[in-house]
Design a protein that fits this description.
Distance between the termini: 50 Å
Shape: elongated
GO biological process, one term: thiamine biosynthetic process
CATH architecture of the largest domain: 3-Layer(aba) Sandwich
Largest sheet: 9 strands, mixed
Pfam family, one: HK
Protein name: Putative thiamine biosynthetic bifunctional enzyme
Function: Condenses 4-methyl-5-(beta-hydroxyethyl)thiazole monophosphate (THZ-P) and 2-methyl-4-amino-5-hydroxymethyl pyrimidine pyrophosphate (HMP-PP) to form thiamine monophosphate (TMP).
CATH class of the largest domain: Alpha Beta
GO molecular function: ATP binding; hydroxyethylthiazole kinase activity; magnesium ion binding; thiamine-phosphate diphosphorylase activity
Number of domains: 2
Length: 537
């Protein structure tokens, strides 16, 4: 039976000498990585002769042992025994865990690869010391790997692992699944590390499981500066991602709070970077300006990082969807994530075609979106439900569920993605998974003017950028004010149809600039009753 062991999986380096830069030696490269922050090393050399493998292992172990960094051998128990290192990592096509334990003894570290529930159950029955979960993404360093899990698959698998008790009578005490350290592997680099660590957390309140670290191959082994790269990896593993801003614990949905949300937009005048379809760009820009924010349209990846440095918001609209545009969409979100800027993702028509489902899955699975906004079919498509029916950018009335049904799925997506979901419809739903805000307002003209749904994202992004510590309240205020402005505009005496309503709508949104206590008011301003039209659940 295995005994308790102490080791750190934070930055788990897996070697591959074929990736070394010209002139570098494996031992020297690994030592530099350790100086930078690598906490454990696995020697993986698939094509090396046994004698050479043992020689290299002994040489590397002589260097790592004085530093207190465990050295594990990949697959080869015979090599691990000959080297006398701290342990081994085995896959399911290699030596069995039971045989490895008999040969190595109880004091050695033995880790197992886990890529599905069946393997997780076997690992739990064995009571191994740690698990390597993956592959997370496709990788060239192991072309024969199982299908990539993605962050959603990783999260689901970790959630299942947390329920597994482990072997009876072991030191795990019937809680192997929650206690066993887990490291993710497969295609992890500095660009996706924050997303992997943040989005892999199981949404379950009980038996919640976190990654203990990340395993890296090519991002370190192929780097000409392994020490500097490992310093960055270690820092990012330990830190809170820039986009995971701590939120106010007090949710206030009153008129005074709503007014302060819009006042902050005027005061801060945040830039709102739009990547949206050509049909709505003009209207979205005008809506952004009316609110007091500053719109900019750009689809040039070379300037995304510079735009993100302005600390504004990003609206990512999937209206014009092409496979060629996918890298551009992802680059924009990653730039915003790196600077902690809010991202509003509008998966337009996500349930209509396989291309749109693929694009929505790519964005959500590889980045963090503060808000996902869409109609019922779009939200259900992003959530991953099958047989979602959608005709185009509009919602299919025949596929609509009850209000409670909609709330349930909106909350489930928000919990899973650790963000805010806005499900638009006859009753707009805003939820962060715990809190739910319902807004029953708006006007029928909104469905008769192109871009009204898309431009709601502009208002949300502006409010989030100006109120980073109150994301949920800012989103509620944006949705409620937008719908209320539509109703107020429709009641103007010079509005006779969609065209005149569109002008009045922009004028009405513009009035939000004056929702200050010291601003002169004529009569009872429409925004003074915003909170009265909100139902909080």
């Amino acid at each position: 039976m295995s005994s308790p062991k102490k080791f750190d999986l934070s930055v788990y380096l897996v070697t591959d000498s074929s990736l070394l830069p010209p002139g570098a030696t494996l031992v020297d490269h690994v030592l530099k990585a350790i100086r930078g922050g690598a906490t454990i090393v696995q020697l993986r050399e698939k094509k090396m002769a046994t004698r050479d493998f043992i020689k290299l292992g002994r040489e590397l172990h002589e260097a790592t042992k004085p530093l207190g960094v465990p050295l594990l051998i990949n697959d080869r128990v015979d090599v691990a025994v000959a080297v006398g290192c701290e342990g081994i990592h085995v896959g399911w096509d290699d030596c069995s865990y039971e045989d490895a334990r008999k040969l190595l003894g109880d004091d050695k570290i033995i880790g197992l690869s886990v890529s599905n529930k069946e393997q997780a159950e076997k690992a739990a029955a064995a009571g191994c010391d740690y698990i390597g979960v993956g592959p997370l993404y496709a990788t060239k360093t192991k072309p024969d790997h199982s299908p990539p899990l993605g962050t959603q698959g990783l999260r689901s698998l970790l959630e299942y692992i947390a329920t597994l008790p482990g072997p009876e009578g072991s030191h795990w005490g019937g809680a192997w699944g929650t206690k066993v350290p887990a490291v993710a592997i497969g295609g992890i680099n500095l660009d996706n590390l924050h997303h992997v660590m943040y989005q892999s957390v199981s949404p379950q309140h009980e038996n919640k499981k976190y990654l203990s670290g990340i395993a890296v191959v090519s991002a370190i082994m192929a780097s000409p500066e392994p020490e500097e790269v490992c310093k960055k990896f270690r820092k990012m593993v330990d830190e809170v991602p820039p986009f995971a801003v701590r939120q106010s614990l007090y949710i206030e949905l009153g008129n005074a709070k709503f007014k302060s949300i819009f006042q902050n937009v005027v005061i801060n005048r945040p830039i709102v970077h739009h990547i949206t379809n050509n049909v709505v760009k003009n209207f979205s820009a005008n809506v952004t300006l009316a609110l007091g924010a500053s719109p900019i349209m750009s689809e040039d990846m070379s300037e995304f990082s510079e735009l993100a440095a302005f600390k504004g918001g990003l609206v990512l609209n999937m209206g014009t969807s092409t496979r060629e545009a996918q890298p551009m969409l992802l680059a924009a979100v990653k730039a915003a994530n790196a600077h902690g800027n809010p991202v509003v993702f509008d998966p337009v028509g996500a349930g209509a075609t396989s291309l749109r489902r693929e694009t929505a899955s790519m964005v959500v699975g590889n980045s963090f979106c503060d808000v996902i906004k869409g109609n019922e079919q779009e939200i259900m498509a992003v959530y991953g439900l099958d047989n979602v029916k959608q005709r185009g950018v509009d919602s299919d009335p025949a596929a609509a569920g009850s209000l409670e049904h909609k709330i349930t799925h909106a909350k489930a997506l928000a919990v899973r993605e650790r963000n805010i979901v806005v499900m638009t419809g006859n009753v707009d739903i805003v939820t962060d998974g715990s809190n739910v805000c319902l807004c029953n307002d708006g006007h029928g003209f909104m469905g008769d003017v192109t871009g009204t749904g898309c431009s709601l994202g502009s208002v949300i992004a502006a409010c989030l950028a100006a109120n980073p510590l109150d994301k949920f309240v800012a989103t509620c205020a944006a949705v409620c004010a937008y719908s209320a402005a539509a109703r107020v505009a429709a009641g103007k005496k010079d509005v006779h149809g969609p065209a005149s309503w569109q002008v009045a709508f922009l004028d009405t949104l513009y009035q939000l600039r004056h929702c200050r206590e010291d601003a002169p008011q004529k009569g009872y301003p429409w925004w003074e009753s915003l909170a009265e039209r909100v139902e909080k659940r």
